[in-house]
Specification:
With 521 residues, the protein is α/β, with parallel strands linked by helices. It has helices spanning 2-8, 20-32, 37-40, 52-66, 73-82, 91-99, 108-135, 142-157, 168-183, 197-203, 222-236, 250-262, 266-271, 276-290, 304-317, 341-359, 474-481; strands at residues 191-192, 206-207, 211-216, 241-245, 294-297, 324-328, 363-368, 397-400, 405-408, 419-424, 429-434, 443-450, 456-459, 464-467, 470-473, 486-490. The strands form six sheets. It has a five-stranded parallel beta sheet with strand order 3-7-6-4-5, sandwiched between helices. The protein starts with a helix and ends in a 31-residue tail after the last strand.
């Protein structure tokens, strides 16, 4: 009978890891020695205490310490009364008992480390429970579940506690502490220097938790500038830098870094025709760069989820974590949203900003500007130039010179590396050029443009055509003709070959050679 009862009785759940004795020893040490709080305030938080009343007493001690007031029995009692916590913690009886827990404060840091360790173990148990719940949710995408699980573990590893609100007084106090640390030379904690003195004077370095967009037209030196920033930060400030190169291989990045550091021309570096002096320069640069804490990943077309996952793992593997993340470049990443390219770019940008906040590092993302900047005088970029350029409809035929046939643009979505004809404005000849990527941008209002030969093409209002007055947006041509006919249609496949000699791709214009396009009703 006793066996049967034992079989049905529920098993008692074990208590979470904690040490009430260590908690009381910390509080007693601070009450015995007012200077002991300074040894533990930097890493021990009120949330680390298992007993709520112990956490309330420690919070009162921290408040006194932050206001530069002495921490002793009387001041702690006064602070608890002002916070209306005096009776809740046990009043005079409990606070008096803490004074007799330890005879001295010599081992206060050891006691505090015990409290911190047990708190981390409790958070790990909580994270494991949440991960288990995620595993039972079959409806969610597996990559989303894995990313959420990594975030939970990263939060435990970084010993973060989720808080809904924080008083302005606490925020201001933290900011003043940051200023004090920067004043004493700990600038890397809050801003990563770029090595460009004038820029650093204005920005204070690349600020942590910021997403910085470095944008320009192709072949203007975005990658070179980003590599200079990364190298300066790593070599001069010993910042740990992660570079995600979606466009160039690791070998190409290494060659560029060696050329920058040694001063040897990159062409001579590629051909290996080096003089004795250049060889010595290269050898010295190799030794310097080998010591730089720079980490490179050259996975092509990496998904933003995989990028964030790799950044988190590297952040955890490195002592004190990463200091800077560089992404080259934004438009080559993917998010899994293949229906709408504009929404995909927005999702990638939001994810990179979330990564910057999560890892508390600046994220420097390179981006290409649209061709709109080339039509203005002077060529000063605007925020609108960061948007995706115009596009043609999916039924637009595209001539493939290698195959000798035309294919609808929609059938090329998701492909890359194929060639189309592009107009070289230097020679005014159509030449084969490689397409970097063909993608869909969803459904948008489109316009029909007709040439004098009767040929027509449908495109969005911001798509550019080569007219007699130069490259112009379609809506500008419509305004000039004072006639337009807006039609709703599927706009897809913004396939953009790199322009030869800086000229925009000729195949985007109408297929009537030597004609001036005009808009008709």
């Amino acid at each position: 009978m006793a066996l049967d009862q034992a079989a049905v009785e529920p098993r008692a759940e074990p208590l979470p890891p904690h040490s009430v004795e260590a908690e009381e020893a910390v509080l007693g040490s601070v009450l015995v020695d007012r200077d002991a709080i300074g040894q533990v305030a930097s890493f021990l938080r009120p949330e680390d205490f298992y007993r709520e009343r112990n956490g309330s007493v420690y919070r009162a001690m921290l408040a006194l310490y932050d206001h530069r007031e002495p921490v002793d029995y009387l001041t702690v009692v006064d602070e608890l009364e002002r916070a209306d916590k005096y009776e809740a913690v046990g009043g005079l009886a409990y606070l008096s008992s803490l004074l007799s827990v330890v005879p001295t404060s010599v081992h206060v840091e050891h006691y505090a480390r015990i409290v911190e360790r047990t708190a981390i173990m409790r958070r790990l148990i909580q994270a494991a429970g949440k991960i288990a719940q995620l595993g039972y949710q079959d409806s969610q995408d597996v990559d989303t579940v894995l990313e959420r699980a990594e975030q939970l573990l990263l939060a435990v590893a970084q010993r973060r506690v989720t808080r809904d609100f924080q008083s302005l007084a606490e925020v201001l106090q933290e900011y003043l502490e940051q200023l004090e640390q920067v004043r004493h030379g700990e600038r890397l904690k809050y801003g990563v220097p770029t090595g460009f003195i004038d820029l650093d004077k204005i920005t204070g370095g690349l600020q942590r938790s910021d997403l910085i967009i470095l944008a320009a037209r192709p072949s203007l030196g975005k990658t070179s500038l980003a590599l200079n920033v990364a190298a300066n930060a790593a070599l001069d400030a010993r910042a740990k830098v992660a570079i995600f190169s979606l466009e160039m291989s690791k070998a190409q990045l290494a060659a560029r870094l060696l050329s920058m550091q040694s001063g040897v021309d990159s062409t001579r570096l590629r051909t290996a025709h080096l003089s004795e002096v250049e060889t010595r320069k290269l050898s010295h640069a190799l030794g310097v760069l080998s010591e730089a804490p720079i980490y490179v990943d050259d996975t092509p077309s990496i998904s933003i989820m995989e990028l964030r996952s790799k950044a988190r793992r590297l952040h955890l593997d490195l002592k004190l974590g990463l200091d800077l993340v560089v992404v080259d470049y934004l438009q080559l990443a993917s998010s899994g949203n293949r229906d709408n390219r504009v929404q995909e770019i927005s999702e990638i940008s939001r994810s990179l900003k979330a990564l910057a906040r999560e890892l508390h590092v600046p994220v420097l993302a390179l981006s290409q500007l649209s061709r709109a900047v080339e039509s203005r005088t002077p060529h000063i970029p605007m925020l609108s130039d960061l948007r995706e350029s115009g596009c043609l409809t999916g039924d637009t035929p595209v001539y493939l010179p290698d195959a000798g046939t035309c294919r609808p643009m929609a059938s090329l979505v998701g492909q890359q590396g194929f060639r189309v004809l592009a107009l070289n404005t230097q020679t005014w000849q159509l030449e084969p050029r490689q397409v970097l990527k063909a993608f869909a941008t969803g459904r948008k209002p489109v316009y029909r443009l007709m040439t004098r030969l009767g040929r027509s093409v449908r495109a969005t209002a911001n798509h550019r055509f080569l007219a007699a007055v130069g490259w112009r947006r379609l809506d500008e041509l419509l305004d000039a003709a004072q006639a337009s006919q807006q039609r709703a249609g599927g706009c897809s496949a913004g396939a953009c070959p790199p322009p030869p000699g800086g000229a925009p791709p000729g195949w985007r214009a109408t297929r009537g050679r030597g004609t001036s396009p005009r808009a008709t009703a």
